[in-house]
Amino acid sequence: MLTQKEEYPDCKAVESQIRSFGQTPCKLLIEPHPPRSSAMQVSLSPSWCMMCAFPARPPADSVDVHRPDAAGCRHGAEVSLQLPVVHVSANTQPGLTNPAIITVTANRLFAVNKWHGLTGHQSSSAPEQQYQLPVEIDPLIVSNVGTHRRQITDLLDQSIQVSSQCFVLTADNRFLLLAGFWDKSFRIYSTDTGKLTQIVFGHRDVVTCLARSESYIGGDCYMLSGSRDATLLLWHWSGKHCSIGNGTPTEFVTPRAILTGHDCEVTCASVCAELGLVISGCKEGPCLIHSMNGDLLRTLEGPEDCVCPRLLLASTEGHCVIYYDRGHFCTYSVNGKLLGHIEVDDSIRCYNMPEKE
């Protein structure tokens, strides 16, 4: 401030500069200045950061991490685990340009953890390389520099509980799709910059779940969105344009098919392009099998206690595994036949099946 200047000549010089050129700020930044890293982040090695990023159980408010030094002494550090990881996607095929494991926390902070593979890590003779992990933790998360490139800050609907069903990652690890926005859309973000690349509208209520089919040559695939309006929309993802539809991301796009038949909110879904089938479940009702053209084929009737599907996964071999409320697992064939049923005591949040059985 000019009133705080102690030297009168300096004050007059600043006033003269303002009259001639205007009052200009010292510097304008396009991106916010990264916060200073704490001493704990500097001292912890990436292997300990890996342990913090992937907790083996639901995290408490904090956990004590001890690591030995060269003399064998143990040094402790209290690491705050603020929010748990709710979604993990791994595309680590050898042919990918950037194989990585993507993790997303409950506050929509995602990490791009590069995958280096297991080759050379187990046979290395050097002590410092013998125990090197095949996964490299996202340097922006470890150093706490540039975390704004990993944070999705757009507002979700207040009634949405962030879960694994809200996220879908493209097969090349370049884009992350997120559902649950208040404007009844789902959005696409770049995993490199964290910037919004496309907003897709089509539902009449909040989008509650997303799913992706297997990818073809060129990166094309199908995206599936389910909503509280009890419908599902099938979209085409263009690997060439890196967007929903074949045009630019700013163009209005229409779904390939509209799937109906549910009476309430869609909670889970899966799409298999190889079989041409879409399987979905709603909050209070049976699971349905549609063709990718939108035709309702059959209903999956489970045991008496299996009424609220929560998670659903279909394989290319024609099997569908559905997790119902209260710990019920059911396996069906694509013809609607119940193949098996078990009950577990745990509360399952996510599961996966191998591509080839």
TrEMBL record:
Keywords recorded for this protein, A-Z: WD repeat
UniProt keyword annotation of Mitochondrion present: no
Gene Ontology molecular function: any one: protein kinase binding
Annotated Gene Ontology cellular component terms: cytosol; membrane
Keyword set includes GTP-binding: no
A family per Pfam: NBCH_WD40
SMART domains: WD40
SUPFAM superfamilies: WD40 repeat-like (SSF50978)
UniProt record, GO biological process: intracellular protein localization
Top-level taxon of origin: Eukaryota
The BEACH domain, residue ranges: 1-36
Protein name: BEACH domain-containing protein
Source organism of the structure: Electrophorus voltai
Organismal lineage: Eukaryota, Metazoa, Chordata, Craniata, Vertebrata
